[in-house]
Each structure stands twice: as C-alpha cells, then as structure tokens.
C-alpha cells in the first residue's frame, strides 16, 4: 500500500472512530507499527491529527476531512452511483454539480459518455467546485460555468455572496448534489453552512434535483441543511442500502435508484 493510500485510510478511520492506536492501525493496514508511527508523526506535522501516547486522535472537536483524503472509502460504490447519475442526464442539458467526491465521479462519468463527444455544447456544466471545473475544462464540447466566491480548501468549493450573482442569472435542467447526510425528515445537509447555502441556490435554479449519496450517508443528519427531502426528485445510492430506508424515501415521493 502506498503512503498516500495509507494516509487516506488512516484519516478515514480516525474520523469514524475519533481515536486510533498504533498497533490497531498497523493490524488493519497490514503494515509495521514503525510505519504507522511515522505516518502519525508526519500527519501531525500537517495538523491533520493530534499525536497521543501510543496513537492519535482527531484534530479538533468538529473535524471535516479534506476532499483529497476522502477518495479511498466507498470508491467503487461512488463510481457506480456516478455512472447511474450521469445516465440520467440528457445531451444538451444544463447541469449543476456541487463539490464532493461523488459529484467529482459524476463529472468523470459524463466526460467519457460516447454521446457527449460533440455538440454545441454537448452539455453545460455549472459548478462551484474548482476541481470539477478543472477536469472538465479540457473537454471543448462542454460549456463550463464557474460561480464566483472564495475557495474552501476542504472541498475545493467556492462559497460566499460572490456566487449569488452568477446563480441568480441562470436556469438549470438538473442539479446534482453531493451530500454529507440525507434523511427523509431533515433533508439533505452539509457540514458547512456557507457551502450548504450555495448548494441550496443550485437546487432552487434547477427543474429537478438528484442526490448522489452512498448508503452510509442515508438516514443521517448534519449541521447545515441544503434542502428539504421533498425538493429532491431522485436519490441514487448503492446496494448496501436497507429496504426500510428505500421505502421511507419512496413514501416521501422520491424516486430511488439502487446500483
């Protein structure tokens, strides 16, 4: 396992559990305790965790993992979800993409669709995510519109009032939301209120809203609400979702696509 892969896995485990012991982490990653100690020391130098005697704890009380460290977990599920979401989008449509690992995979799935290789434009993509804009900008058949705003380093998303001016002047066919949590009662949510506000504007400008979320995010709540469940037309998730959860979303009038 490469160093980057180890770091991603260690940080994901730390976010889930709050604390990791050296021996425990070494056993899970099948590497030596000395390797884990070095990893913990280097991550502590970057202020990604706090070193303790024999292990590490999360850095701060309210911890959010930066996007570049999130890709290791649920990767195959996110790719399947992304392809299914991309298949819901028709050529020529205007699509809003929020930031996040799953929506980044949606952008990649759109980029390789054979029926979107030409057109004027083949697709219009509106995003506040710098990494998504960067990946799609090399596709001349796509029209890329980037909102204004201040870059948020955890998610590469542009946030703040500068984005309002752009989003207030456009209309979208579909908005694709990447979320931290999605619940029938509490709706779709993010960790950061400024990020949620921009995502909410994308939803308001769209004719239909698609939530792309792996099953670990369903039935959960997060601090900042993006939109109510009734504002969402379609949920695309993975096969690990339980039937009761699917029925609750369907009873709320949401189409659920399981992949």
Give a brief rundown of this model.
The chain has about 260 residues and is an alpha/beta fold.
Structural class: alpha/beta
Strand fraction band? 15-25%
Secondary structure: helix percent: 25-40%
The major beta sheet can be summarized as: 7 strands, parallel
Describe the model.
The strands form 4 sheets. A 7-stranded parallel beta sheet has the order 6-5-4-9-12-14-15, with helices on both faces. Strands 1-3-2 form a 3-stranded antiparallel beta sheet. Strands 10-11-13 form a 3-stranded antiparallel beta sheet. Helix 5 runs parallel beside helix 6 (130-136). It has 259 residues and is of the alpha/beta class. Helix content is 36%, strand content 25%.
Annotation keywords:
single chain, 259 residues, alpha/beta, 7-stranded parallel sheet, 3-stranded antiparallel sheet, 9 helices, 36% helix
Question: Which helices and strands, and how do they pair?
Answer:
Blueprint: H1 3-17, E1 19-21, H2 22-29, H3 33-45, E2 49-52, E3 55-58, H4 75-87, E4 94-97, H5 101-111, E5 123-127, H6 130-136, E6 142-146, E7 150-152, E8 157-159, H7 162-167, E9 172-178, E10 181-183, E11 187-190, H8 193-204, E12 206-212, E13 224-227, E14 234-237, H9 243-251, E15 255-258
Parallel strand pairs: 4-5, 4-9, 5-6, 9-12, 12-14, 14-15
Antiparallel strand pairs: 1-3, 2-3, 7-8, 10-11, 11-13
Helix pairs in contact: 2-3, 4-5, 5-6
